[in-house]
Amino acid sequence: MKQTLLLFLIIILAGSCKKETAKVSENPKPVINNVPDSSSVDEEGEIFDSGVLAVFPKTGKKAQDFVIEPYEIQLEAEGFLNDDQLKDVVIVLKNKDDDKDIRATLVLIKQKTGDYILQETSWHALNAEYSYEGYKTYEYENISIDKDRILRVTLQGIGPSGARETEYKYINNELVLSKIHTFNMGAGSQISVDYDLISGVAQMELINTMVDSMPSTTEKKNFKLKRTQLFVDDNPDRVLNDLPHADW
Known about the structure:
By secondary structure, this protein is mainly β. Helices cover 6% and strands 40% of the residues.
């Protein structure tokens, strides 16, 4: 994984990006859940101030059945997520009218009838594609489900954004954020860190690129989270803020 991120970052040609938390755009079309004291609606039904989230259909025969206006499918992955032998689907939805809007990631679990149910929705697995200033945060984004029933979200860029890969898996019927991998390049060095959120171990590798032989050093640290990090509730960027990284 480290080699893949490094290769991508070396060959990609793009400007540095800026990261910012995104907001929900103004649009009267989606069905919404109101969050008390955090939003308002005018006479024509337009949404202001964030704090309202679209409500997607609970069942459908295909992934497209879960898409409402003004959203469209941006990323899609198929594979086995839970413990049965029916292929599930994960889709990332973006607001086609506003690429600075937050995105929804939907986990669709296949039933024996052939239909799908919306098992979980995350507004945190991926941030907005673009910042308020119009900067694209990551040049490459992908989701996949591997043979070990892991949902993997891969984000790769250059500059401050670096690269980040998150892994989710079902534990006790909840989709849990289990691992985070980060990679960054700077003047004279490259650093990659693997965080295992289940075991509470972080492993860092630092490569000195100022020397032709590019020597590397590794270090491990233990950490303890206050609770299990969930696909539905937790933003990986915020999780990273609580993990050991500043003093490597």
